[in-house]
Design a protein that fits this description.
The chain has 420 residues and is α+β, with helices and mostly antiparallel strands. The chain has 13 helices and twelve strands. The chain binds a DNA duplex (18 and 18 nucleotides) through helix 8, helix 10 and strand 9.
DNA sequence: TCTGGGGTCCTAGGACCC
DNA sequence: TCTGGGGTCCTAGGACCC
């Protein structure tokens, strides 16, 4: 029989920091979102203090001081590299692997049952922990949704749980809150509550037609998965993105068009990198800007402008040029801007570009060579080693990252030091 | 009194995930 | 002073067509 195994890294960002700073072990620790805005990862000690994911830092500063919580800015370079290491290990156990997020993967396991299945999961868990230092939780079920539930149950216990052919499945689902089911968010939880559905067993046993009406076809799939019928298959090859967004809030408020231009050019460059990384070109580009909606006493402005490109492209120089024009069409002086972004849509494979009748192909080929050269340099020496002048030099609008740790695994000059 | 029926396509908005 | 970023999918409703 085939079943799904979810391997989930515990408090992933915090665990990454702890690998290289063992003094943090057992100490309350948090990692912040971009711009040091919100809490996005918490150690168990912090979860116990009642600090919720998504809490703005300034709203929990008292608790941070009182409990001497260790604070880190997001060190995405480090986390992405550690994630790659974890996934490489999982791949050695089975090629049937779906990397679901930076800290989670689904594995398809065939031909194992009962004790042998759990033993296999334990082996995976121990190997990842020994080789990377990242603690993981393993959940096993006959559908992805059940594997997710198993992982939640395993957390805080032995770290592994299998619901496959479990004799007390009804009891387990009765004790499992509907809000904790994968695919049931706060809105659906509230709606289900109004109909007296509070736990996973009640939802599993609800009639199909009613579920579809209330929660759409996706909700019905979730319910079927609760019954052990897989409806979400393993996606070993990630489908190419349909939209690519690159946006950031600014470390400092921005008012001048010049600075906004630099930021938007930088986001366009990032979007271009992502586009090329998946071998695509984009035909539709959107630029948006907005002031800080939380600053209610300031005058607010948000706007977006889009453009259907004359010819689909993945070329940074073109993207920057179009994005800048769009920005100029929506920029209004007199506002304090907090955020801007670039969105790419109508994404298709680079292999079959629709050549334009009116644009000769030669400059296009040249641009391509230049882009490949720049990507090569940046891949070798680090992001933005070489970049367009339009992206600016000082970049005052850059992220705030006051509590950043080192990029221990990807920079020679930031290697961990060992004192004897 | 009473004004059709059946399609397609697109977009905005809402729900979810990490 | 201070509130992240990047995705997915589905549905309802409007525009438009014959």
């Amino acid at each position: 029989m085939n079943c799904f195994m979810l391997v989930d890294c515990n408090n992933f960002y915090v665990s990454c920091e702890r690998v290289f700073n063992p003094a943090l072990e057992g100490k309350p620790t948090i990692v912040l979102s971009n711009n040091d805005g919100c809490v996005v990862a918490r150690s168990n000690e912090v979860k116990e203090l009642g600090i919720l994911r998504g809490t703005p830092l300034f709203k929990c500063e008292d608790l941070v001081k009182k409990h001497q919580i260790n604070v880190f800015s997001s060190n995405y370079t480090l986390y992405a590299d550690m994630s790659g290491r974890v996934m490489n290990i999982l791949e050695q156990f089975t090629p049937q692997l779906e990397i679901y997020s930076i800290d989670e993967a689904f594995l398809s396991i065939a031909g194992l049952e009962g004790e042998a299945l759990v033993h296999y999961g334990q082996n995976i868990k121990q190997t990842v922990e020994r080789w990377t230092g990242i603690p993981v939780t393993v959940g096993i079920g006959t559908s992805k949704t059940l594997a997710k539930i198993a992982a939640k149950i395993a957390k805080g216990k032995s770290g592994i749980c299998s619901l496959v052919a479990h004799p007390q499945i009804d009891e387990i689902l009765t004790n499992f809150a509907v809000a904790d089911i994968w695919g049931i968010g706060s809105q659906y939880t509230a709606r289900l509550k109004r109909y007296g559905i509070h736990n996973a067993k009640q939802l599993r046993d609800a009639p199909d037609r009613w579920v579809k009406k209330q929660l759409t076809i996706m909700g019905l799939r979730t319910v079927r998965e609760l019954r052990g019928i897989p409806c979400f298959p393993l996606e070993e090859i990630p489908p190419p993105r349909k939209g690519i967004v690159s946006s950031r809030s600014f470390g400092q408020p921005v008012t001048e068009l010049g600075e906004l231009r630099e930021a938007v050019a930088s986001y366009a460059a990032r979007a271009g990198e992502k586009l090329r990384a998946q071998g695509s070109i984009a035909g539709y580009l959107t630029v948006f800007v907005s002031t800080n909606p939380y600053q209610e006493h300031h005058s607010q402005y948000a706007n977006a402008a889009s453009l259907c490109l004359p010819m689909a492209t993945a070329n940074t120089r073109e993207l920057i040029s179009y994005a800048t024009k769009l920005l100029e069409s929506i920029y209004k002086s007199g506002y304090i801007y907090k955020k801007a972004g670039v969105v790419l849509n109508e994404i298709r494979p680079e292999s079959n570009p629709q050549l334009s009748l009116f644009i000769p192909p030669e400059p296009w080929q040249q641009n391509r060579k230049l882009t490949q050269l720049m990507d090569g340099i940046n891949a070798r020496w680090g992001r933005d080693t070489i970049h367009y002048g339009a992206q600016g030099i000082n970049q005052r609008w850059q992220l705030r990252r006051d509590y950043l740790s080192r990029r221990y695994t990807t920079r020679w000059d930031e290697l961990p030091e060992v004192k004897i």
